[in-house]
Amino acid sequence: MGKRYISDLSEGERIVDHFLVQSKRLLTTKSGKSYLSLVLQDRTGRISGRVWDGADELNEKFRTNDTIKIDGTVELYNSERQLIIKRIRPSEPDEFDLADFVAHSAYDIDEMFLELRELVESVENPHLKALLDAFFEDEEFTALFRHSSAARNIHHVCVGGLLEHSLSTVRLCEYLTTQYEGLDADLLIAMAILHDIGKVRELEISPAINYTEEGNLLGHITIGIRMIGERIDRIPDFPPKLRTMVEHMILSHHGQSEWGSPRPPMFLEAEVLHRADDMDVKIDIITRALSEDSDPDSSWTKYHRALERVLYKKPSYEADTPPGDSPDE
Amino acid sequence: MGKRYISDLSEGERIVDHFLVQSKRLLTTKSGKSYLSLVLQDRTGRISGRVWDGADELNEKFRTNDTIKIDGTVELYNSERQLIIKRIRPSEPDEFDLADFVAHSAYDIDEMFLELRELVESVENPHLKALLDAFFEDEEFTALFRHSSAARNIHHVCVGGLLEHSLSTVRLCEYLTTQYEGLDADLLIAMAILHDIGKVRELEISPAINYTEEGNLLGHITIGIRMIGERIDRIPDFPPKLRTMVEHMILSHHGQSEWGSPRPPMFLEAEVLHRADDMDVKIDIITRALSEDSDPDSSWTKYHRALERVLYKKPSYEADTPPGDSPDE
Amino acid sequence: MGKRYISDLSEGERIVDHFLVQSKRLLTTKSGKSYLSLVLQDRTGRISGRVWDGADELNEKFRTNDTIKIDGTVELYNSERQLIIKRIRPSEPDEFDLADFVAHSAYDIDEMFLELRELVESVENPHLKALLDAFFEDEEFTALFRHSSAARNIHHVCVGGLLEHSLSTVRLCEYLTTQYEGLDADLLIAMAILHDIGKVRELEISPAINYTEEGNLLGHITIGIRMIGERIDRIPDFPPKLRTMVEHMILSHHGQSEWGSPRPPMFLEAEVLHRADDMDVKIDIITRALSEDSDPDSSWTKYHRALERVLYKKPSYEADTPPGDSPDE
Amino acid sequence: MGKRYISDLSEGERIVDHFLVQSKRLLTTKSGKSYLSLVLQDRTGRISGRVWDGADELNEKFRTNDTIKIDGTVELYNSERQLIIKRIRPSEPDEFDLADFVAHSAYDIDEMFLELRELVESVENPHLKALLDAFFEDEEFTALFRHSSAARNIHHVCVGGLLEHSLSTVRLCEYLTTQYEGLDADLLIAMAILHDIGKVRELEISPAINYTEEGNLLGHITIGIRMIGERIDRIPDFPPKLRTMVEHMILSHHGQSEWGSPRPPMFLEAEVLHRADDMDVKIDIITRALSEDSDPDSSWTKYHRALERVLYKKPSYEADTPPGDSPDE
Amino acid sequence: MGKRYISDLSEGERIVDHFLVQSKRLLTTKSGKSYLSLVLQDRTGRISGRVWDGADELNEKFRTNDTIKIDGTVELYNSERQLIIKRIRPSEPDEFDLADFVAHSAYDIDEMFLELRELVESVENPHLKALLDAFFEDEEFTALFRHSSAARNIHHVCVGGLLEHSLSTVRLCEYLTTQYEGLDADLLIAMAILHDIGKVRELEISPAINYTEEGNLLGHITIGIRMIGERIDRIPDFPPKLRTMVEHMILSHHGQSEWGSPRPPMFLEAEVLHRADDMDVKIDIITRALSEDSDPDSSWTKYHRALERVLYKKPSYEADTPPGDSPDE
Amino acid sequence: MGKRYISDLSEGERIVDHFLVQSKRLLTTKSGKSYLSLVLQDRTGRISGRVWDGADELNEKFRTNDTIKIDGTVELYNSERQLIIKRIRPSEPDEFDLADFVAHSAYDIDEMFLELRELVESVENPHLKALLDAFFEDEEFTALFRHSSAARNIHHVCVGGLLEHSLSTVRLCEYLTTQYEGLDADLLIAMAILHDIGKVRELEISPAINYTEEGNLLGHITIGIRMIGERIDRIPDFPPKLRTMVEHMILSHHGQSEWGSPRPPMFLEAEVLHRADDMDVKIDIITRALSEDSDPDSSWTKYHRALERVLYKKPSYEADTPPGDSPDE
Questions:
Q1: Which residues of chain F lie closer than 8 angstroms to A222, CB-CB?
Q2: Closest by alpha carbon to A253, among A241, A244, A261, A245?
């Protein structure tokens, strides 16, 4: 039997399957009895769970972020589904697929990667092409790159998220090279591909997405410059000025110092890369905020802290007009 | 004989032609003699001029921003060209073409306008189409719109500048509707066309580009909302919610209150419009700053106040590599 | 029997009356029994309530913001009054007066309105007088204006609040015209009356005070400019410059862009209006914060987020001096 | 013969009188001859002057900020009046009245002071009355207070300026006590009188208005608190809490830390004092900026740095309407 | 038997001793029974407590911030220690030592004070020495100074904290006078000793550390200037300029207006004092944040609001290297 | 004869020596004659010069930043010295010592470097010692490091300035390790030595001090991290965590993002390094501003843009007290 996902569970159903432990607390009822309050997670969402029997003992057997196998029943509690768990044990490594427990990009990773590789091939400048090859012919890197998330909790937060975001940014940059004269297409496209490369080491998926120690202390910009530098060191005759420009485009792609770029973009391709990156990020944040909204009665989402605003859930403005009066008839 | 433009004048040449008076000062030499120090302008640039004889009298005959006919000779003064003017009189209205004295878009206005009209035709929503038609079938408006500048001195500062900027913004928005699901293409394209409409009344070209009193007191956002409202009032059955959304997109297109939008963009099309507008503006500012740079010895432009940075004049980074060693051979 | 208000309820009392449902949650005791936790509201305040029996069923019968009739008893729980509710049903529309459930201005609306009308009559400029008449001879508008709140939750939050705030602002402006030469009294007084006119459409009282969709997307400044423009359009020969100045005073009355005015006040009457408005608002916020303070043991109120400070509850500083030593004897 | 003021000088006139030296530079013509370039000042304005003969010698005889007697002729130079000076010597102390060289309040100092004294008498609280008396029955203080300027170059920059500004602030505060319940009139009026008291030592008129060393290192708020403290120390039984409140009102009257008040106003009278002070200051700044504007051709003043805006010189908006069409007929 | 401190309590232990009531709430179980939920404190930390019997009655007998004697047992509840309290009564004043209930500096107060007194003696300038003596030969002041905390909850929050912080600041300033020429050692050391003097009246330990009314309304800078002024008034021939400089160093020691100093440091000693003060404060904040961290599993502390960052708990970076490979062998 | 420095030149003196051309302009007198206006520089200061004869021809022979030999006479012009130059020719490379034309640290470079080397030896941690050796046993690096300036125009602007600043910072850090427990002395001292290492490539002295292209595009922080990374790559078994901490200390030493550090200091040594660096920088800026002040009549320096304030030139405050009254007698 295939895996049963949280989004599909319904009231009364008995479920025996593996889940990721998102959080765990040992509590005590007023009568003095211990119980476990869990939040379980898979790639489709989260559900709370209760273990009423043997809580003290079970509590020692697994930790937050472990994967466990449970046997339980879905009940409704205050209109929300809850798992009443009878049995529980840690999962064995070969019993589950980690990919089941963390969100994935809505797009096919192989297809996206293929498109990105084609864009790599379109770069004609031999130095930049050599730099891209140093990354994309390195299997260890590409495995990591295909798997990485683009952020911890703001945008493109999923396996494949970094690839999805990078690809959108490259596409937009490619379009812009067709519209504005004087853009160095090779430079812009190569750096659009590489701009967030440092995120493969800034973040880890385990399966929760968190900053690594290196990520927290240095950030993906500094890591990315180092990753690029290590590869350029091995490319013969890479022009020193081009190296500085490449490093500058990584350094400046957040646009200003308050957002983590100690230098502002100082030439056109750097400015365009910053804005294309930002455009794709903001579109994803808004799309995500709208799709995660859960209150059908309101025209407005909750206050979004990163965006510093509420969002308007566009009504069907046509519906305001009585059918018979419609001006398009 | 055709008009002789400032950019073409060379040392020693005698010139009898019309110019716009950009500034005028009556000064006195140490020996007590009055002279006029002028800056003259046409669509290709500026040149300083001196009138050594009859300055007091001539000074009364014209004012800054007038067009005058001069008879003079081009001399070099401290490596720069200067007009030594013998005779001067105000131009008659029928003697010159105002268009000769103010910069024009580098693109053909008719072609740009044709393309914009086609984009107008692509809008299917009948309400938005009616709104666009209310503008673009109004000859008085279209004449003004085709002629207007997009700003006083930052970006697209020229006759046709508003049209050029609007068209670029629409094109970018159209591209984005092909890349991101869930964008309402009609709404986004219609509003990209109309987003800066208020500038036809905020600025005037006379031929210097200046704010009108209305422009200074209200700004193009408030003027634009009023212009749109006046037209919507005459469209039967325009949906009230759509009207509010249209007005919101004008209101929020500067992105945040510090930049003149009292409301931030509150739905996806409003956010995308803001960023597409800003992308085109910034590309024009940088391109303009690079093209206006006049010091060939430096790798850097002067400090740019609006951008708050200096810009790097990209060297030919290939040239760093000795020819024989080039990795692309 | 007249309505019994929340501020008057005392311990042990049985109460059968209508209240507004401010919030509602269905919870479950440890023993698995459902109960309802309510917050009820009338114009005098709020009280929490509990329904221990039949909670699941009753939960379906009404929603937040409904008015319900309850039968219950006032008990003390941890020093606070609480309603233990036995029976509950939705109120019929004709059973209650909405005005009982939302706060009212402490001043008489008719008296305030009369005073405002007299101030309208004092305006001599025929254009401005015509504009004021276009509002105050419109019964639909005046009904709305008299009823509106001046804000959602910061200042003058009550039925009649907009009228109360507008009147105070006008009075202060009138005083200032007697103190400072060169103030155009007609312009200042007319615009003080109209400055917040857009709030009649920005907010709705239902009976909770909330932003309308239009209010959230456009804000009262933009709405106000449109309301004024629609009326000016119907006044013959309204001077165009005066119209721009009128619109500028609406636009700039928040003083600076960060506070929602894309233009700062650009002439004296606009600046004075902004500061008179702000003076009245801040006095109301502080007065309100002091009157709502509920801890008699402290010399300080809680931290006030809008004011970004705590407030000092002025002690009777005379009391420090022993009676016999008082210097005023 | 009475003093001849700069504002009255006309072309061709010979003038022998005393002026204040605002600035002085020794320059050399191309032919190597020295000359003096002066700016002279009296209470009505400034005029530039030239000394062509004996410049080296005369240069040693006086310094900037001295008062000199000159013998010269008024000539026009580039449309502006200029003094061509033949003779020059330092003025003797008894030859001139310092008051002729620095601007005075447009209001009569005696009348203003009388009104302020009456307001002092209106304070009933014996402690606050005693504090006011400690200042206003001190002749040394009152002489200084009547003479002082309210600022160095922003607002009320003149002899009597501090008195004029204090009086306006008190009047506005007195009005507000009639409008808002719960304002402690004695406290508010007493502190409105005293709020800028520290300026008598922060600034000196000599006759240029400059910061004293103490003023620059401490500021008028800290100086004012000390001046008040020294007097309270000598008042028997002044309530300690009242003293703290009085000091807080001085400390907080600039409203927030960025404007020099380390504490925000923490009770209503402190907030009202801050806003009344600010209202009077801003009205004076705008009135001053409009009266100093010197370009009759523009509808706009120059950019005002303290206000961070240009100001609109209100046109006669009635004039837009053709007489025959006037709606008020 | 000596006092038993909270940090030493272990599971199962019976305890009869005095504690400070940090907070107190009367709650009710679902079955309707009242109980008291307390947080008790001594100088070593905090523990929660429960009173299950006689809660209503006991609740009336003491208030928050009182010291009580309890008889109870230590139990474990969800892995944390909790006191189950059987009996409770208010402590008598002579039964406890207030010093047991509030944290103390880790350094010996007598030793620190002795060192500070020696630094006082090192000041040679007679005026500054007289000023220091006016404080340190005043027993009332020194008792207060030795006891005071340096802040309410950010740094050096303990009895003796002000002394500890002042001493560290003086030491650092003394070191700097040996490194940089042109520092006036007497002025810098004297003011480093006195810079936070106002805190003895800004804060009170009762035993919770709180702002006094005077402290909240005026702040320690204004209080400190007054304390110094009162003493200078009694020192004959104290140079006025030195007084202004001394007051300026108090006024400016927070460095800029946003941090509470209306004037920035305007001479070198004032700047150095500001930075030495800040250095010591920040080192204490970070040391404190690391020592209070309670999660041994994470490399990072929780987010620290005052520092606006998380802190890295330095790993033993040597441990990364396998022992046998250590390069130092 | 030894070099004659600008600071020693006196009126009437004839001078034949080499100077650096700081700026050069070809101007024309009213009579039409060309002349050269120069500013010449050596390590002691600047002087203006005039070439009245043969200006057009001489103008072609040298450029700004060249070193030239001149023959001229010192004259006084408007109280300032000026060189009237008769002859001029470019200097030959072997005729001058570049060090004569740019300011040097006031301290001996050899002595400072020796002290720094001893501090390097004091580091015991073998990894950090190896890293320091990788720099200080590299003669090319040490030559550059000893020569470099610490900034372009704010602080330590001179040959040896980087060394002087680094040494002061290390000394202060070493002192702090003796005062505060828990500081890792090796880490702090090593990184204090290396914190500004990137400046050897960010700036160039030619002999004007300017940013390199790499310096402008990347900044010394990014360059420094790369320089350190290249050396760590060659050190066997350098602990990865230590590398990240070392890089973090470079990255964060400006303290916050607005000042160029994308990460704030996240452990104690990083915070201390930031503040020690800043302390030394600010002391140098203030000392420099006071020593460069040129107006002996004022108690205040000019407004200092980087410090955003004027500075008080400390008077001899003792002098206020009449000798006979001195309290120290």
A1: 222, 225, 247, 251, 262
A2: A261
Determine the average pLDDT of the residues in F296-306: 86
Whether residue B239 is preceded by a cis peptide bond, meaning omega within 30 degrees of 0, is no
Quickly state the pLDDT bin for F259 (edges 50, 70, 90). very high
CA dihedral sign, ordered F186, F188, F190, F193? negative
* Secondary structure (DSSP) of C235-285: STT--HHHHHHHHHHHHTTT-SGGGT-SS---SHHHHHHHHHHHHHHHHHH
Contacts of B among chains (3+ CB pairs under 8 A): A, C, D, F
CA distance F89 to F70: 7
Give pLDDT tens digits for C237-292. 999 999 999 999 999 999 999 999 999 999 999 999 999 999 999 999 999 999 87
What does C209-242 look like in DSSP terms, one character per residue? Answer: EEE-HHHHHHHHHHHHHHHHHHHHTTSTT--HHH
Residue D4: DSSP 8-state: P
E229 vs F39: which has the higher pLDDT: E229
> Is the predicted pLDDT of residue F32 greater than 70, yes or no?
no
Mind listing the pLDDT tens digit for each residue in A16-31?
A: 999 998 888 887 665 6
Q: What angle do CA C285, C290, C295 make, to 5 degrees?
A: 140
Phi, psi torsion values for C309, nearest 5 degrees: -165, 165
- pLDDT per residue over C39-92, tens digit each? 898 888 788 899 988 888 888 889 888 899 999 999 877 667 889 999 999 998
Interface predicted TM-score of the whole assembly (ipTM), two decimals: 0.84
C82 sits in the region (left: phi over 0; alpha: psi -120 to 50; else beta) called beta
Per-residue confidence (pLDDT) for residue D228, from 0 to 100: 97
Residue in F with minimal Cα distance to E236: F327
Contact C218 B257 (CB under 8 A): no
> Tokens at residue C11, please?
């311990």
Which of B271, B275, B287 is nearest residue A268 as measured by Cβ atoms? B287
SS3 C117: helix
From CA A226, how far away is CA A203, in angstroms rounded?
Answer: 16
Residue D229, CA distances (Å) to D135, D243, E231 in order: 12, 8, 13
Taking residues B196-225, what's their average pLDDT? 93
Nearest to A282 among B168, B275, B310 (CB): B275
Task: Name the DSSP class of D3.
Answer: P
Residue type, B86: K
Contact D290 C268 (CB under 8 A): yes
- Residues D174-196: tens digit of each pLDDT: 999 999 988 999 999 999 999 99
- CA dist F113 to E313, F117, F160, Å? 34, 6, 9
Lowest mean pLDDT among A213-227, A231-245, F48-62: F48-62
Cα gap E284→F272, rounded to integer Å: 11
In whole angstroms, give the CA distance from residue F19 to residue F67: 6
Alpha-carbon torsion (B92, B95, B99, B101), positive or negative: negative
Indicate contact of D with B: 3+ CB pairs under 8 A: yes
**Number of Cβ atoms within 10 Å of the Cβ of D96:** 19
Distance in angstroms (rounded) separating the CA atoms of residues B262 and B272: 17
pLDDT of residue A114: 97
Distance CA D142, CA D162 (A): 12
Please indicate whether chains E and B are in contact, defined as at least 3 beta carbon pairs under 8 Å.
Answer: no
Q: Number of residue pairs across B and C with CB atoms under 8 Å?
A: 71
pLDDT, tens digit (0-9, with 9 covering 90-100), for E148-205: 999 887 888 888 999 999 999 999 999 999 999 889 999 999 999 999 999 999 998 8
- Work out the minimum CA distance from F288 to partner chain A, whole angstroms: 27
